[in-house]
């Protein structure tokens, strides 16, 4: 009996049973129904084998006490919860066989757990190696980025050193030119000293003559003149002499000044090889000047702004048209609103930028000094501070300008504030275009103007034989007199300047005394076909329309 109990303890069946239960619990929500059932049956089989061994040990313990050994304990503790036919005989399987089966199952479970642990360890090692590889790759990327930054710094440093060298050379040239100019002025002054002495002697002679004339005039009452006419003629002759002297003096001085200026021009022309001295004083911005058309900031910002202008036409404009279509089904009026927003945005932005530039120039003029001109300093400040503007105020100005426009309209309870996102983007774009050294602008456009192929393209619903523009869809972007991006316009026959604005007041819209203008009645049928009918036109009865025909 003791040997059987020792073998049972050495096998560790209960520990195997506990491990199986814990493993089943950890994988319960992952396994399928069949897998959980199989696990449960496996635990039950192992438990049954252990119970069989325990009952056999119970039988051996009871036999050691004789016929009635342990009967009281069995009756009091075991029999109450045992059912009928609970005891099962071992059958053909002996105790040693059962214990060996249990030992084999436990050994297999241990091997499986060890294999699983080894697999998990290998996975952890692979993860660690992968993480180390990623870290090394990231370090290499960082080193490559640092190398690129160092190269860029070295290139910039070399370019800045070269720029500083050029600036020093230019500064030395300016100083040399100033020294030569000062030397030439000193020479001219020393040469003009004799002329100044001659002019002083001439002035002394004039003063002496004038003093003599004054003494003569003071003695006029003592001279006996027979007639008053002789006295007046004598005074007139004296005045004429004085005027002649003054004119001669002015002529001599002007001739001297002209001669001096001509000598200076001749000397400057001989030194610099210029026929006209005015060419020497004309300012021409250098390639590194912020006022140059080839400036890097000018070229890069101009390209970005032109691309943004095209994006607004292809994306923001369509989004705003969808928003306007919710409140008004008049396609032509919606297109007019978009075009008016762009025009008013550029007008407001140019006005605000002009005031901003004047304030900047006035503030910099107090402290400006150096080789750069004042205009270059102002443009450099503007390039560095392009965001110093009041966007909400400018958006409000654009909305107020749209409310004053008599060619566009919205329903009575709707405001132009529904287009505020598009207005904000248009104002930003207009301000940045105005802040360039060579600004970009939209071309001036009016209804019923002659269609210009160099500035606009016709829309798909235009009449291609019509020479006049009915309305504009998108403005033309220009730089001075050069067209950068073409706009879009609608050409129609019979296009006119006048476009009646519908009333935004409900009282005026429903008034029976409101009359239609002849121009609104005489619109061609093709124009009605190209536009979706508005609710106001659908609401006019045939009897009312015949009143004005």
From TrEMBL:
Coiled-coil stretches noted in the UniProt entry, renumbered to this chain: 105-213
InterPro entries membership: MIEAP, MIEAP_C
Ranges of biased composition (kind: Low complexity): 506-538
Subcellular location, record wording: Cytoplasm; Mitochondrion matrix; Mitochondrion outer membrane
Gene Ontology CC terms: mitochondrial matrix; mitochondrial outer membrane
Chain intervals for the UniProt region annotation (Disordered): 489-549
Record keyword Mitochondrion present: yes
Biological-process GO terms, alphabetical: mitochondrial protein catabolic process; mitophagy by internal vacuole formation
Keyword rRNA-binding part of the UniProt annotation: no
Residues of the Mitochondria-eating protein C-terminal domain: 301-491
Gene Ontology MF term list: lipid binding
Keywords noted in UniProt: Coiled coil, Cytoplasm, Lipid-binding, Membrane, Mitochondrion, Mitochondrion outer membrane
Family to which this protein belongs: Belongs to the MIEAP family.
Record-given protein name: Mitochondria-eating protein
Source species: Lymnaea stagnalis (Great pond snail)
């Amino acid at each position: 009996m003791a040997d059987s109990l020792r073998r049972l303890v050495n096998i560790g069946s209960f520990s195997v049973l506990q491990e199986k239960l814990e493993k089943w619990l950890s994988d319960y929500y992952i396994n399928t129904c069949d897998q959980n059932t199989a696990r449960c049956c496996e635990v039950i089989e192992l438990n049954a084998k252990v119970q069989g061994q325990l009952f056999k040990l119970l039988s051996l313990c009871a036999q050691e006490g004789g016929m009635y050994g342990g009967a009281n304990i069995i009756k009091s503790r075991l029999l109450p919860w045992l059912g009928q036919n609970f005891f099962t005989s071992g059958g053909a399987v002996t105790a040693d066989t059962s214990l060996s089966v249990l030992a084999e199952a436990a050994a297999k479970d241990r091997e499986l757990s060890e294999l699983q642990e080894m697999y998990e360890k290998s996975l952890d090692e692979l993860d660690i190696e992968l993480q180390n590889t990623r870290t090394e790759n990231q370090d290499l990327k960082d080193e490559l980025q640092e190398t690129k930054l160092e190269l860029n710094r070295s290139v910039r440093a070399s370019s800045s050193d070269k720029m500083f060298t050029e600036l020093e050379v230019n500064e030395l040239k300016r100083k040399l030119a100033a020294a030569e100019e000062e030397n030439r002025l000193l020479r001219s002054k020393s040469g003009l000293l004799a002329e100044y002495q001659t002019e002083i002697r001439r002035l002394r002679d004039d003063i002496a003559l004038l003093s003599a004339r004054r003494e003569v005039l003071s003695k006029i009452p003592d001279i006996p003149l027979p007639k008053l006419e002789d006295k007046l003629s004598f005074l007139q002759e004296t005045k004429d002499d004085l005027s002649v002297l003054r004119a001669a003096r002015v002529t001599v001085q002007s001739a001297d000044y002209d001669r001096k200026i001509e000598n200076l021009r001749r000397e400057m022309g001989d030194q610099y090889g210029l026929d006209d001295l005015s060419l020497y004083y004309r300012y021409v911005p250098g390639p590194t000047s912020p006022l140059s058309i080839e400036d890097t900031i000018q070229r890069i910002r101009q390209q970005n702004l032109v691309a943004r202008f095209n994006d607004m036409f292809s994306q923001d404009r369509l989004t705003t048209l969808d928003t306007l279509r919710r409140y008004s089904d008049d396609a032509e009026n919606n297109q007019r609103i978009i075009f008016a927003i762009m025009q008013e945005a550029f007008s407001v932005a140019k006005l605000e930028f002009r005031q901003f530039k004047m304030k900047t120039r006035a503030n910099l003029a107090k402290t400006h000094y150096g080789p750069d001109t004042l205009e270059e300093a102002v443009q450099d400040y503007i390039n560095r501070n392009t965001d110093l503007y009041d966007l909400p105020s400018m958006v409000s100005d654009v909305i107020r300008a749209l409310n004053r426009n008599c060619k566009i309209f919205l329903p009575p309870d709707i405001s132009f504030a529904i287009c505020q996102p598009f207005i904000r983007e248009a104002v930003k774009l207009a301000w940045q275009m105005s802040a360039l050294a060579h600004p970009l602008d939209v071309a001036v456009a009016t209804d019923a103007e002659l269609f210009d192929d160099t500035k606009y393209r016709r829309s798909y619903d235009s009449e291609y034989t019509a020479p006049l523009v009915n309305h504009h869809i998108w403005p033309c972007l220009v730089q001075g007199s050069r067209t950068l991006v073409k706009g879009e316009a609608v050409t129609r026959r019979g296009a006119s300047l006048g476009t009646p604005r519908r009333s935004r007041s409900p009282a005026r819209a429903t008034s029976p005394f409101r009359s239609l203008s002849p121009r609104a009645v005489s619109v061609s049928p093709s124009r009605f076909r190209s536009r979706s009918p508005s609710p106001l036109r659908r609401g006019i009865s045939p009897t009312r329309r015949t009143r004005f025909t």
